[in-house]
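re: ur msg from earlier - yeah i can do the PRP complex, just paste it... oh wait u already did. ok heres what im feeding in:
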Amino acid sequence: MTRIEKLEELISKDEIQDRVKELAEEIERDYQGNEIIVISVLKGAFIFTADLLRYLTIPSQVEFLAVSSYGSSTKSSGVIRIIKDLDVNIQGKNVLLVEDIVDSGLTLNYLKHNLKSRLPASLKICTLLDKPDKREVEIYADYVGFVIDDYFVVGYGLDYSEYYRNMPGINLLPEEYL
Ligand code: PRP
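and the outut:
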């Protein structure tokens, strides 16, 4: 792939860190010391989850789910597949599902119903980014880092053809690449 040299930054590394810390504080207040299982949706949420966990001081376990809906495309196919399932039973547990972005909402909608059927004591959703303009199903996250306009963004876990996940901030992918 041709490497795009200059990307325009939308949200800086420091802005992200400040907001992730605030989200962790909000989550802690709500759970009041109760234990949670944080479920990180791979691959996009892995960096956000790692930072969020480091700011959380309530007892937390972490689990990973891998889902694929987009393949290498920038548009949703709408078909959600679980590629890697949880290693533990979440029945009776407080579950916090962590996403990097909610776009059409199809992934989250699928995961919410799938996880609810496993009878957790509670299920809440935390997303770093929310793109409400693109929503195809009515679904909301309980904790939202940033609401953004309809840009294709990369960095801090989000990719374009698997690249740019390692950028520390959130950056705009120029339209000519879409
Ligand atoms: C992205 C993102 C969310 C989903 C959001 O995953 O991580 O899981 O798309 O889009 P939606 O609201 O339209 O369903 P992607 O399939 O790109 O995989 P990745 O996390 O491995 O990059």
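cool cool. The helical segments are 13-31, 46-55, 106-116. ping me if u need the other ligands too
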